[in-house]
Specification:
183 residues, alpha/beta, six-stranded mixed beta sheet, 5 helices, 12 strands
């Protein structure tokens, strides 16, 4: 799939608007890319639950785990599913609520200056070739569009929230991903 970025949107992605967003602080440049993983229910793939979760429509009766998270208000800019399909929830110029309490190079509140990408997956299973292909194409576009972002400013959620978060987890192949970005 071919992608392009215009007016904060990834053309070529599906768009589902999440209410879990707001304005970035004035004069804040996008500098950081945060990679996450998510599966709902935990360890299961292909359901619509992630989209429901990011849109505050998750039914806590559908799975016992959902009652633990149904009241959370979170989102990401993008979700890349196991087939490599990309869904955008928040325009890039807006602040998605993905990082929570976080710190990068002495700066807290990483949501203010980052883009969050969720990979459908877990800490315990390899990600798919299609996911790496989509993620690398999107990343190259983000690096071209947001000039203050750089390869050394691409991190996992675990890097900015150590001890609190583990994603994207040990099964995420950072070397493969970075090789795909720089070619």
């Amino acid at each position: 799939m071919e992608f392009s970025i215009a007016n904060g949107f990834l053309n070529g992605a599906d768009y589902v608007k999440s209410p879990n967003q707001d304005a970035r602080p004035d004069d804040t440049d996008i500098e950081l890319l945060v990679i996450h993983n998510i599966s709902l229910p935990p360890g299961e793939f292909g359901a619509t639950s992630i989209k429901q979760f990011f849109c505050n429509q998750l039914d806590s009766n559908d799975h016992s785990f959902y009652s633990e998270i149904a009241d959370l208000r979170v989102s990401a800019h993008l979700l890349i599913d196991r087939e490599g399909r990309v869904t955008q929830f928040v325009p890039f110029q807006k602040r998605a609520w993905h990082a929570g309490e976080s710190l990068f190079c002495g700066r807290n509140k990483c949501n203010d200056f980052s883009i969050g990408i969720e990979m459908e997956g877990t800490d315990f299973e390899n990600f798919t070739d299609s996911q790496y292909a989509s993620l690398s194409r999107v990343t190259r576009l983000l690096l071209e569009t947001y000039r203050k972002m750089a390869v050394d400013k691409i991190v996992g959620h675990s890097d900015i929230a150590p001890g609190r978060k583990t994603d994207p987890g040990p099964c995420f192949d950072w070397d493969r991903y970075k090789q795909l970005i720089v070619g």
